[in-house]
Design goal:
Blueprint: E1 3-6, H1 9-29, H2 42-60, E2 78-83, E3 90-92, E4 101-108, E5 111-119, H3 120-123, E6 129-130, E7 138-141
Parallel strand pairs: 2-4
Antiparallel strand pairs: 1-5, 3-7, 4-5, 6-7
């Protein structure tokens, strides 16, 4: 079962600002996108990623620090993967920390669903390994494999 989380206009503005800060830092340091992604939608990806992180923090009722540091946990001890479509899988990469829990948050523009979570080591199964876009292979963990939220 997923849980709907709607952000207020003020929350959207705050989280979007963190996404802007991330992208500006990447421009300043000439950082390349990870895992073969193109840089065409960097602004959108950073902003929506931050909105998804904020949505999870709101659901868990924990502090969200915003910009954060590269490769540190996104929300408290957890990482967040935000996807626009509610049917999307949670994407894991081989170098994601095995002991970290990853949450899937779907939606956009302030309306999100917290879909579930999994430890990276449990989601890195060969059966989930796919390459839907050339040179962008990853583990695509189906929502059915995620631990569901208990209300």
């Amino acid at each position: 079962m997923s849980v709907q989380v709607n952000l207020t206009s003020a929350e959207i503005m705050m989280a979007a600002q963190a996404g802007i800060m991330r992208q500006v830092e990447n421009i300043k340091t000439k950082a390349e996108p990870y895992y073969g992604a193109s840089d065409v939608a960097d602004w959108q990806l950073h902003i929506e990623g931050c909105l998804g992180e904020f949505a999870l923090a709101k659901y868990l009722n924990v502090w969200w620090g915003g910009k954060g540091n590269k490769r540190s946990a996104d929300v408290f001890l957890y990482d967040v993967r935000t996807a626009a479509l509610h049917s999307h899988s949670l994407i894991l990469h081989p170098d994601d920390p095995d002991d970290r829990t990853f949450w899937l948050v779907t939606g956009r523009n302030g309306a999100y669903r917290v879909q579930g979570y999994i430890k990276a080591k449990d989601g890195k199964k060969q059966e989930y390994w796919k390459e839907p876009v050339k040179n962008r292979a990853a583990f695509f963990v189906p929502q059915s494999a995620l631990k569901k939220i208990k209300l």
